[in-house]
Design brief:
Elements (H helix, E strand, L loop, with lengths): L13 H20 L3 E2 L5 E3 H9 L3 H6 L1 E4 L5 E4 L4 H10 L9 E11 L11 E10 L4 H17 L5 E7 L3 H15 L8 H6 L13 H7 L11 H16 L5 E2 L13 E7 L7 E7 L3 H4 L7 E7 H10 L12 E5 L2 H16 L4 E3 L6 H11 L3 E5 L1 H6 L1 E6 L5 E5 L3 H6 L1
Parallel strand pairs: 1-5, 7-8, 12-13, 12-14
Antiparallel strand pairs: 2-4, 3-4, 5-6, 6-11, 7-9, 9-10, 10-11, 14-15, 15-16
Length: 418
């Protein structure tokens, strides 16, 4: 039987990878402008990190994690999201002693979730995320939203909407949970088994349930925004003022609670209408309690994450313009041992000068080499055979306009570098 990739994983082939590189280059340049620097964390972490940080009532921890016991009898998990690992690294490396805010990003970070594969959502997918530690200000919330919107704009995306909400802090969440439980008590028999187990421990998770019967029940549920304390209300109003002043359109969407337990206060999503029912391209918010929850001193933080596969899918659906795939500039067609030796040497010299060049490794006929050069999209072809060696010159053909130029063999490298 032929071995295949595991379900929910996907190969990125050479003819597609340049699109990823284009997106990654835009991300790196934008993060540089915002003074945000890269962090890289391990693919595996201790399972406790996600049980404590993400929350043991979330779908991720309850249903989706890839967890195993290693040879040292330790419970290890392939990371299902990026933030918890960054917070662990922040604490372990004592970055809290550095000047605040600490701003960092991760890119092309693989994450693993056991869920039903669908368009733009795989069991192994890759994320870009921003984490900003130390600032309690709504201006920090606005900054990362503006970065996300600017990135999507630079990538040519349209038909996007920024949705914002506030889910409050521990203080106002307590009152909200009481009101939510009172509402849900009348519907408990109609809920799925997972939500029945959440009603006492973390009722707000029920708002995020994907089961249709639970979604229908939650349409009439109380909303967090109606229970905000004065501080949370002031923070949310400040965020809206900041977005208004910058001319950013947004929708206050009280359905957003996000699927991870560490969120507090501001939450947001950037939504596209071009992916189908699951239209969220980017999501994030505040997690002011997570650093303390994982053993540090209280420290506010805010961030977001987006899946690169989903982002690329939206770009393709909206016909965003990708750059052309990289092409070979010069292709050397050669036959015979001595001509091939010279052609091979010239290819290496051009590459050392930064010029993409290629050479036939398959011992094709000259005609077949020209066909291959066309397939590679070569801008120029150079034919070298015994006659060219004897004459000391070769014919260089521009494959775009057909113009041919005779050049001395010793001058070929200079011809292309100049």
């Amino acid at each position: 039987m032929q071995i295949q990739a595991p379900k929910g994983t996907k190969d990125v082939l050479p003819q597609e990878s340049y699109k990823w590189q284009f997106v990654e280059s835009k991300i790196r340049e934008l993060c540089r402008l915002y003074g945000i620097y890269e962090i890289r964390t391990p693919v595996i972490e201790h399972t406790e990190l996600f049980a404590r940080g993400v929350g043991d009532t979330t779908d991720i921890v309850q249903k989706e994690m890839y967890t195993f016991t290693d040879k040292g009898d330790r419970s290890i998990t392939l990371k299902p999201e990026g933030t918890a690992g960054v917070v662990r690294a922040f604490l372990e490396n004592r970055l809290f002693n550095e000047p605040m805010p600490q701003k960092m990003f991760y890119l092309n970070s693989p994450v693993f979730r056991y869920e039903k594969p669908q368009a733009g959502r795989l069991r192994e997918h890759h994320q870009f995320g921003i984490e900003l530690f130390g600032s309690p200000s709504y201006e920090a919330d606005a900054e990362i939203m503006l970065l996300a919107l600017e990135l999507l704009k630079q990538l040519g995306l349209s038909d996007l909407a920024l949705h914002i909400n506030s889910i409050g802090c521990k203080k106002c969440r307590r009152q909200y949970n009481e009101a939510l439980r009172a509402y849900l008590d009348d519907h408990i028999e109609e809920m799925c088994s997972t939500c029945k187990s959440r009603i006492d421990r973390n009722p707000m998770r029920i708002i995020d349930c994907k089961e249709e019967k639970c979604r229908q029940i939650c349409k009439g549920a109380p909303r967090t925004i109606d229970f905000l304390c004065d501080d949370c209300k002031a923070h949310f109003e400040g965020l809206k003022r900041n977005l208004d002043f910058c001319g950013v359109s947004y929708v206050v969407d009280t359905d957003i609670v996000r699927g991870l337990d560490y969120y507090t206060g501001t939450v947001f999503e950037i939504v596209s209408n071009n992916v189908g029912a699951q239209g969220t391209v980017c999501g994030g918010g505040r997690y002011n309690d997570l650093v303390e929850e994982l053993g540090g001193q209280p420290l506010p933080a805010v961030g977001f994450g987006l899946g690169l596969e989903r982002l690329l899918l939206v770009m393709e659906n909206t016909r965003a313009i990708f750059p052309d795939a990289p092409k070979v500039k010069v292709y050397f067609a050669a036959t015979g041992e001595r001509p091939r030796l010279l052609a091979f040497s010239l290819v290496q010299q051009l590459r050392e000068k930064g010029i993409p060049a290629e050479f036939d490794h398959m011992d094709r006929s000259i005609k077949a080499q020209f066909k291959y050069a066309n397939k590679l999209g070569a801008q120029y072809t150079v034919v070298i055979g015994d006659d060219e060696l004897n004459d000391g010159s070769a014919n260089i053909k521009n494959m775009g306009d057909g113009i041919e130029t005779m050049v001395q063999l010793d001058d070929i490298v200079d011809f292309f570098t100049e």
